[in-house]
Amino acid sequence: MNISIVIPAKNEAENIDYLVNEIMDNLEARNDFEIIYVDDGSTDSTSTKILELCKRHPRIVRLVQHDISVGQSTAICSGVSKANGNLILTLDADGQNNPADILTVIERTEAFKDNEHYCIAGYRKLRKDTAWKRLQSRVANGIRSRLLGDNTPDTGCGLKAFPKHTFQKLPYFDHMHRYLPALIKRQGGVIIVIEVTHRNRHFGKSKYGMWGRLSAGIIDMLGVMWLQRRAKLPKINEIYPND
Predict the structure, then answer these.
(1) Chain-centre distance of CA 190, in angstroms?
(2) FRET pair for 135, CA 20 to 30 Å: which of 49, 100, 116, 237?
(3) Which of 71, 107, 68 is nearest to 207 (CA)?
(4) HSE of 53 in the Cβ direction (CA atoms, 13 Å)?
(5) Residue 190: which of 162, 169, 156, 171 has the closest Cα?
(6) Which residues pair with 63 in a beta bridge?
(7) Over the stretch 158-184, which tens digit does the pLDDT of each residue have?
(8) How would DSSP label each residue in the chain?
(9) pLDDT in tens, 75-84
(10) Are residues 194 and 104 in contact, defined by beta-carbon separation less than 8 angstroms?
(11) Helices 13-26 and 46-56, interaxial angle, to 10°?
């Protein structure tokens, strides 16, 4: 197993079959991937739908379940902790990230060595959101990018790829998934941004409010800035004793 696609989901039962079928269609030429759904305390039939797919595709689809909802960052951490793949690829469960972009993201990771730190971050240049939501997102992303220097215009895009060993070195905190490029850059990683497509939802509505994210984001951003200022990245030379 080389690639683990981690999908945090909360009350997304209607979107699961459609998204899994798309992922499998786009990766049909590969046999080295798994899809890990993390059911973050859903109150609908999300877990039931995923279990049906686990039985139908036992080698590919897996379910990790939280008994209560603890948020997207913790859901991603839970998925990564159970992943068999060396490369982690995250995807939103609502179907707005297009699985057709997955192969492009994977191709960009092939330029890196196994021990390197990096993040391939999606950029939804043409977002399928309201004008008001796009404006708020541009302002928030602009402020964050200037303060953190992560050179990422759309850190909220769920489509990202990074090595499992890189993620395991990151400090954990709630909402950390929104700062992955800055956190990975902090430990010497390379950040590559690629344009990806963005689609309307097939079913359901967003689980996250813009203003709630903003209030939490200010505190989180200050915390990430604190971490950046205290990062130390020495060049390590391995010295062998003479025989």
Answers:
(1) 16
(2) 100
(3) 71
(4) 24
(5) 162
(6) 37
(7) 999 999 999 999 999 888 998 999 999
(8) --EEEEEEESS-HHHHHHHHHHHHHHTTT--SEEEEEEEES-SSSHHHHHHHHHHHSTTTEEEEEESS---HHHHHHHHHHT---SEEEE--TTS-B-GGGHHHHHHHHTTS-TT--EEEEEE-SS--S-HHHHHHHHHHHHHHHHHH----S-TT-S-EEEEHHHHTTSPP-TTGGGGHHHHHHHTT-EEEEEE--B---SSS--S--HHHHHHHHHHHHHHHHHHHHT---PPP-PPPPP-
(9) 999 999 999 9
(10) yes
(11) 30
37 with 66: CB under 8 angstroms?
A: no
Kind of pairing between the strands at 33-40 and 61-66: parallel
Structure token digits, residue 37 = 């759904």
Residue type, 138: R
